[in-house]
Amino acid sequence: MKDSHAYFLQPYKGPGSRLTCPACNDKHCFSLYVDENGDYLNEAVGRCNHESSCGYHYTPKQFFTDNPTARPNWKDNFFRLPQTTINSTVKTKIWTITTDIVTNSVNPSIDSDFTLFLSNLLGREKTRKVINDYFVGVTKNRDVIFYQIDKEGRCRTGKIMKYNRETGRRIKDEKIGGRITWVHSILKSSTNPKLRLPDDWTLTQCLFGEHLLKQYPFKNVAIVESEKTALICSSFWNEYIWLATGGKSQLNDRLQVLKGRKVVAFPDVDGYQEWKEKLSKINGLEISVSDILENSASEEDRINHVDIADLLIRQHRRKYIPISPVEEHRDPMKHPTFLKVMELAKFSNAEELAMLIDDLDLEMVGYTKN
User: Fold this and answer.
1) Total domain count for the chain?
2) What is the pLDDT of residues 215-254, one digit of tens each?
3) Alpha helical stretches, state H, 171-216
């Protein structure tokens, strides 16, 4: 059945009419496709204004091709489609980037500004391990490359980002060019015929760190929003495979690769309700949403948009940097609600529980076996 609606890109009505792009995550640059009533089709169906650096453009035609049973009331039924229909959303052709592009840019002996921050935080040995495990690359400008490599070992793309080497914060100054670029965008515009991608090359993203699922078939999974968070958490809390969605808008069918795994989601402090709502609508997955930040974050934490990595860093630094009793009292990691994470983790034995308490320097305040 062909959809009878007509869709067009939403007219510009000021910065508020442009959203965050689901691919590059830049704000006020994404135009949704809407119908004559102004209703959007899907939060991923639209076009990014950054045609050269991002190039994301997902049309209504592609959406209905990928989701043949979807209708204008997709919000009511899209996430309740049979599993066979969800599987049909996977594109028949997966465009990839050659392995040599990845291997030539992954070099633990050369620091990006981001990995220099990691070295100061974690030490050189742990940083090297993270770089090798997640295939973290570096550009000539010392920007970091977060490669997306799927479960089959295929590189989908790489996100190139600028970080402050001292604070570890992403550089968001609009006056600085290339704050976020993509490997596939650079290759599509390359003048080198050996590197240039075909004009019809199409981006199909996967979870950051997805390749580790095959390497660790029996590990539970933790998902977070940013690649940086996944890397830091993997060093502090290696009982999980830490994967990143790359943004709040990326809680979609790419999560189906997690089917059969026990998964804990750790949304950023401003994302709890949104993640809980979206993940509750995805069938076939066993995902618990941690409320540790929702319950324990201070007002200052909310202003600073902290995530689970920020809390782990705070706990780590407290071991080595003396702080005042007042600062310690404000630390959310000392709040008993942090222990809820253990309940979500569903530990199978006391040894695992003891390991977590020791690793994070926690204080046991109580434990009830369900």
Assistant:
1) 3
2) 998 899 999 999 999 999 999 988 999 999 998 778 888 8
3) 183-188, 212-215
